[in-house]
TrEMBL record:
This is Acetyltransferase (GNAT) family protein. PROSITE patterns: GNAT (PS51186). Residues 15-182 form the N-acetyltransferase domain. Keywords: Transferase.
Length: 184
């Protein structure tokens, strides 16, 4: 961990205050077109109202955002939950649906500013976010293919739940990865 990096839990109010800074970071980290931020804003605000929502920020000495991770308790009726249920039921069966979806935390977003990646900040964020999460499992989705995100998830023991899955409305294949909590 760099000594110039500070980690802080953000309340929902603090998250809303930093929303545009957080979305700028997200767009830069994911290399998405600029308009993506506006499109995502209402969704991120809705997420912050969900049961079990928690967020950890990495901040520099000027209090600027270097990284962000958040998630919440997954539950039926949420779009992501229903998409993953459909995929799991179709390929792995109902036992897998119950195993993974009965009691899980969805890691929804994790991003580090491009010029600060590759220094362990993402791992620090993830460990802090998942510490004391009460759910039995953590699940996430990530685009297929080698990436720094994949290396991070594998290093922390995430295994395959569903591979090459296509969410409705997105042509890219995704992997759903998961592991039991707590982290070691
Ligand atoms: C995925 C992402 C959040 C990971 O964050 P990160 O800070 O870059 O990565 P990590 O915390 O895993 O850093 C580990 C890397 O730092 C290096 N490192 C340097 N000092 C370190 C330290 N003290 N502790 C741990 N790792 C350290 C490691 O060698 C490792 O290198 P590697 O990834 O080349 O193997 C970040 O790369 C990112 O925002 N990517 C783009 C957006 C994205 O893909 N988000 C996830 C979508 S599903």
């Amino acid at each position: 961990m760099s000594r110039s990096t500070r980690y802080a839990r953000l309340s929902a109010d603090e998250f809303r205050t930093r929303l545009s800074e957080a979305l700028d970071l997200y767009v830069a980290a994911m290399n998405y077109p600029a308009g993506t931020a506006e499109q995502r804003a209402p969704m991120w605000l809705t997420h912050a109202l969900r049961d079990g929502w928690r967020c950890v920020a990495a901040l520099d000495t000027d209090d600027a955002l270097l990284g962000l991770a958040y998630g919440y308790r997954g539950s039926p009726g949420q779009w992501w939950h229903e998409q993953v249920r459909r995929g799991l039921a179709g390929t792995e069966g109902e036992a897998a649906v119950r195993h993974w979806l009965d009691d899980y935390f969805e890691l929804t977003e994790i991003h580090v500013r491009p010029d600060r990646q590759g220094r362990g900040t993402g791992e620090d964020l993830l460990r802090r976010l998942l510490a004391d999460v009460p759910q039995r499992h953590v699940l996430l989705s990530t685009p297929e293919g080698p990436s720094r995100a994949w290396r991070l998830y594998r290093r922390l023991g995430f295994t395959d739940v569903l591979r090459h899955y296509r969410f409705a409305g997105d042509p890219r294949p995704f992997a759903i990865l998961g592991r039991a909590l707590p982290l070691d």
